[in-house]
């Protein structure tokens, strides 16, 4: 396993177009990094640069501190798992998993191959399918075979390019949690490209948001959600998306098309001097005012609005408020939409209400908004004026601590399951502690992914 450092990486294709533009990311050993962004923002290009399938135009790529820009893919010892699995149809599951080992001719004895394949298959619950052909497997099983191939190679890192996008929703959920648990158990550095909000938020220790080849923000999912650096990140992360309302600020009174909102002094101060701002409000910051306890009401602002309609979802409901922006505000929303790669930003606010709310479309209703949580964005630069960088950094620090604990717990559990909790007295490197029963007999590494430490 390894750390990966991207140092001002640039990729220009033949036509000079910068598909990746000055991206720097430090990926820690064992970390799970997600790359997200709209189609064409350079996610796959970045992944392919790391793995060596794409030349690096400028900048440095380091693996464990060693510059690898000029190393061939096979010498980087990274394993890539693709969307379409790339399995060999004529080979059994066993031989598909064993393939990378057979490729390294003479490097592994038959016994070693058998041991590695059997262990990987057990990890992935493929033991019963080893003699079958890929065509006879489900999508999820094929995906696991592809991952088995990555595991037996004892690669220093796994790189995934939308590995689950071909699967149906249910299986995707299942595979998502399998990948998550496996990553923790193996403690293997992983970089994962996805379009899927849920995958991004649940799998990643940190999520990197890209826009047109440029890194916007990299942080824990919670920091991205609560303290986005700009409009783009705020709008990209979260579902339903954050609402953006053009507003003018007078003292600590925000005048918006859905009503006047009194906001906390400290937020108003950060936006002082701006004539026009964009108010960013997540749907869940709203509530039916009737259902908010009195002592909480003072934390927010109550306004009257007429919802066009509501959608009851069982656990909650969505309500929709249309607003009619002034012409110059409409222009602002249009340019914002272009910036965010959306077709249009509808002059509409989505609110989530408690399932018990009796508010219905067509009638005036009192809506409460938790103004402590809203953000104010610069209408021109898109910068988040109210971001609390310290609070954000704290969220990411907490996430890093949780990761360390989770990896330790997962690996202990793994050790217990194999009846071998500690690793043959090997000193504290994590890769050693992942080595399972029988360690040392096959080059010091097993399906649990020890690096070629002992040979
Ligand atoms: N071989 C190539 N030659 C020229 N331009 C390319 C090539 N491959 C990709 N690009 C361009 O580089 C940019 C980034 O492409 P990339 O495939 O990395 O995007 P992506 O973020 O993975 O998108 P998606 O989510 O659609 O997979 C795009 O503008 C694309 O047109
Ligand atoms: Mg792609």
What tags apply to this protein structure?
2 domains; 6-stranded mixed sheet; disordered C terminus; 5-stranded antiparallel sheet; binds magnesium ion; 455 residues; single chain; elongated; 21 strands; Rossmann fold; binds adenosine-5'-triphosphate; 31% helix; alpha+beta
What would your notes on this structure say?
The protein is α+β, with helices and mostly antiparallel strands and 455 residues long. It is built from 13 helices and 21 strands. Helix 2 crosses helix 3 and helix 5 crosses helix 12. The two termini are 15 Å apart. Bound molecules: adenosine-5'-triphosphate and magnesium ion (MG).
User: Quick one: overall form?
Assistant: elongated
Hetero groups in this structure are: adenosine-5'-triphosphate, magnesium ion
Work out the count of structural domains. Answer: 2
* Largest beta sheet: strand ordering: 6-7-8-3-9-10
Domain ABC transporter: 4-237
InterPro entries: AAA+_ATPase, ABC_transporter-like_ATP-bd, ABC_transporter-like_CS, ABC_transpr_MalK-like, ABC_transpr_MalK/UgpC-like, Mo/tungstate-bd_C_term_dom, OB_MalK-like, P-loop_NTPase
Keywords: ATP-binding, Cell membrane, Membrane, Nucleotide-binding, Translocase, Transport
Protein name: ABC transporter
